[in-house]
Specification:
It comes from Noviherbaspirillum pedocola. Residues 1-20 form the signal peptide. 1% of the residues are buried. It is built from four helices and no strands. The longest helix has 19 residues, at 2-20. It is mostly helical. The chain has helices at residues 2-20, 44-52, 54-62, 73-88. The chain has a domain at 45-89.
Length: 89
């Protein structure tokens, strides 16, 4: 039983050492060609209207949760909608 355990540990040690010595792939240089502009997915008319609104920039800075982290997704969309309505009043 001790010999099986010793062989297993030695095998794992050798295999781990072999994998640890693998060289890292060299980093590729960044492409200097500009990527084509791709419009955002979804309702682009609403996104452009919200971006053009002065209330959008005010509300975007206020879109944080109770822990101070930025809101994302549906929570942010709902907050922005309510904030813009209240800001325009």
């Amino acid at each position: 039983m001790k010999s099986i355990l010793a062989i297993t540990v030695a095998t794992l040690f050798c295999a781990g050492s072999a994998f640890a010595q693998a060289p890292a792939a060299p980093a590729k240089p960044a492409a200097t060609v500009a990527a084509p502009a791709i419009p955002p997915q979804g309702n682009t008319a609403a996104a452009s209207a919200a971006a053009a609104s002065p209330a959008a920039s005010i509300c975007a800075t206020k879109a944080v949760d109770k822990n101070g982290r930025k809101l994302h997704g549906a929570a942010k969309a709902s907050f922005m909608k309510k904030c813009e309505v209240n800001t325009l009043k």
